Amino acid sequence: MVGPRDVGTEKTKRSDKKRALLLRLMPMLVSLALIMIILFMFTGRQQTWTSEGDGLVDLISRPYIPISPEEAKKMLASEENVVLLDVRTRQEHDDQHIPGSTLIPLDQLGNLITDEIPDRDTAIILYCRSGRRSKEAAAILARLGYTRIYDLGGIIDWPFEVAKSY
Description:
Elements: H1 4-42, E1 46-49, E2 56-60, E3 65-66, H2 69-78, E4 82-86, H3 90-95, E5 96-97, E6 102-103, H4 109-116, E7 123-128, H5 132-143, E8 148-154, E9 163-164
Parallel strand pairs: 3-8, 4-6, 4-7, 7-8
Antiparallel strand pairs: 1-2, 5-9
């Protein structure tokens, strides 16, 4: 038969084991919570609509909305507050660019964008040569609080008119 002291000792041992397990798991749980908070904070969320106009598709977890050349051309023609932003170098822009685009090279974007486009709800369509820099630009704009960011990708995929210097 177990005496009163033995029961208390068993409860204490179980309690000590639980406490030890909790202490081992605590750093891992805290790290996991911090990672989730950071991911939530730095993952821009925007609503996107289908080109067919059938309503809200889904919230997407990237700071930009991919847009096709056809959709971009239509948006530029039909909406007033849209900026087509070229994030390539001055030389690349001078050689060839989409008519009506504004140049802010990627390496100057963070410093110049708020002067050029102060309204953070302005629709901004980004492009570069192949699409890599436009994605980087989208991340910069999202961090600065811009909310309507569209990534056209590269001018190499633009099937419409371009202005050339040669």
